[in-house]
Recover the amino acids of this structure.
């Protein structure tokens, strides 16, 4: 029972990490696209 709970928690952490990576990658792509088109010119 305890082992199963630990696995579930680890699985949740992995999903959160995967989502985090996906969001960062998406933001990076969007930022690169905006800079590339010249929208983000500081």
């Amino acid at each position: 029972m305890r082992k199963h709970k630990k696995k579930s928690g680890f699985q949740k952490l992995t999903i959160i990490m995967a989502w985090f990576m996906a969001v960062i990658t998406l933001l990076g792509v969007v930022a690169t696209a905006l800079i590339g088109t010249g929208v983000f010119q500081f």
